[in-house]
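Input record, target 12 of the design panel.
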């Protein structure tokens, strides 16, 4: 137990941000779960940074996220995803979500038509046009 404590205490006080008295009150299982959760958050952050790098730098066409990360992306917990059938409390579809979906479709159409810059970003003129088209609907 002393070996586990010597090995785990720096992680608990550093990465987890526990105070010494909080660490003393935790069971081994609780600390191990917290460390696992912290590692999962770091892996998700690495995935997000890898995705950002893939989208904003000049990787060859067809490069996948696992090629950037050097491993498969960390699995996302399905409980985090909002079901597409979820509506507001009154049963009506969420108009804000519908607007976001419309904007995404407009941007995707612009991209397919070659209207996006090589970096994958809309020029200010293309963005204003897409936004105006979305609002006109």
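The sequence produced for target 12 reads:
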């Amino acid at each position: 137990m002393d070996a586990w404590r010597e090995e785990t205490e720096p992680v608990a006080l550093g990465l987890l941000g526990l105070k010494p008295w909080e660490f003393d009150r935790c069971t081994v299982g609780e600390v191990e779960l917290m460390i696992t959760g912290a590692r999962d958050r770091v892996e998700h952050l690495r995935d997000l940074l890898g995705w950002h790098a893939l989208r904003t730098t000049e990787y060859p066409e067809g490069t996948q996220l696992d090629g950037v990360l050097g491993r498969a992306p960390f699995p996302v917990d399905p409980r985090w995803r909002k079901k597409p059938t979820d509506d507001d409390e009154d049963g009506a579809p969420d108009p804000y979500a519908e607007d976001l979906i419309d904007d995404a479709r407009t941007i995707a159409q612009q991209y397919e038509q070659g209207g996006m810059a090589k970096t994958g970003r809309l020029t200010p003129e293309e963005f204003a046009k897409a936004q105006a088209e979305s609002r006109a609907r």
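DSSP finds six helices and no strands in the chain.
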